[in-house]
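Co-fold these.
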Amino acid sequence: MIKFNESSPIYLQIVEKIKADIVAGKLKGGHKLPSVRDVAESFRVNPNTVQRVFMELEREGVAYPQRGIGTFISEEAGLVEKLRDTQAQKYTGRYVAQMQELGMGKDEILENVRKVLEGNENDDTQD
Amino acid sequence: MLGRLITYELRKKWKASRYVLLGYAAVQMLLLMIIRVFLWNEGIIDGFEINSETQANFNASFGLLTLLFFAISFMLGAYPFLESMYRFERDLSGKQAYLELMLPAAAWQKVLSKLAATLVSLVVCGTLSLLSMFIFLMVNSNFRYFFEFFDMVLQMVVSSPAGFIAAITLTLFGFACLYILIFLCIAVAKSFTHKNSIAVPIGIMAFILMTVLISTLESQTAKFPIYIFRFADLSFALSTAVMTIVLFALLLMATGWLMEKKIEH
Amino acid sequence: MMILKTDKVGKKYLNKWALSNVDISLEQGKIIGLLGPNGSGKTTFLKLVIGMIRPSSGSVTVCGMEIGYKAKEMISFLPDSEFLYNWMTIREAGDTYAAFFKDFDMARFNELLQFMALTPDMKFKGLSKGMKEKLAIALTLSRNARLIVLDEPLNGVDPVAREQILGAIVKSFSHESTILVTSHLINEVENILDEAYFLKEGKIVLHGSTDDLRSERNKSLDELYREVFAC
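Predicted complex below.
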């Protein structure tokens, strides 16, 4: 179950969730995705929305349909890396845009990122 | 569909009436036993042969209990009448009105099924009511007239079986006409409003008006019989018979039409 | 094919219009929400659709037919109040539906009962409010009707039952039919809707596909709803 973000279309959010699962290794190339109905049921969303999710995944080459069997995650080499890159670009882009809204410049943004990362490392060493 | 509707209506009747019937049986059985034990204690074999020497207070209590027994029997006879009116009213504007109106059947079939269930309950309750009065008389008179009674009934049936059947059919049809008229009046009232403080007077007014209208029509058509036919000691004017049947169908259709087209929820 | 089409439909009580000039067209295979606060005319509209009341103006057709008992065969309706008899057990309620509705799917009914943790031997009288609602939903969704109309299916039930009811709606959704659902709990239903109609004081004030509404205005339906109905 995921908590849907308020304003972007739900189908895109599910697409992102599935991509994130692929990047994290929860879904692997060649794996069969659950049926539209099962996905709809587990997310409690409209089956038409899930249909759209599958279409979007197919359009982006992340998944492919096998007639009468189901939809499978693409086995294309470098898929995970590609997705990781695009997701990373997207998240970073979002972060940078938000920082820029606060009036931060390039150096300040980098400085902040470094601080957070170092803070995390310190936390890790304390454990 | 009509068959399924009738089964459904009968189930509803049974579920609504079973405790009433059970209660009735229990109360009457108790009363009967009290009276019988009473009589035995007084050394009386036949309760209906009490002579003037018996004590006055015994007479009074026996009379009172008997009266109570017959009153309750009579109430059971009247029960289907009241229950049907109540049920029909609830079907139109109660909580279950949604379910009733969702059923995919022509409205006249729904009305007809309710009418059929009502007649069945009338026959059952009427028979039980008469039967319990009969049992009362038999038990308290020490089965004095038992054979005479059966003889009488048997002779009535044997001497004119057709007449017997005709009498029963006519009685039932008479009740059916009365009920459909009542149903129509309830439907008329409900198509104005669901507020019973207004709907009940409208219904009663409609009933009086319709009764006057129909009896006028009947007496007028009786003047022009066209043809008079006899059936088992009874004579009928063809005109009146045809008109009664036509009226019955019209009332049925009108009730269905009001349910389908006029009553709002 | 249009499952439901209303043309400038209106309903007048005495001299007040409870509903006016409502144009709604529902396509096959969609879940559509009719959203608005209490008293906005949602139930009045649904009653017009199922033929409980008749329009003062305009027209309503289901699969191209005027509302009559033939049209009723194609509509499965969930009222927002109790409508079953106290003496019924869950099984008897199912049997009653099976006897009257040709499109009733007993296997699906049993599956839905299991899904919602109801057993057939329970008596209607002894059920809690949430269980009654779940039973009513199971009955309504077990019909393969062209139009399924759910009036406030989440009203007055706890969050767990809400999840089950939403799950049941998604589970039994079919591309052959259309589901029209009313609610004032926008947050709960917005994820299952293809389209939404906002009804305010008897008029449609906003209509669109939920994805479009969300991305065009960058707001959730719930936020939009608060905006539209804020006094």
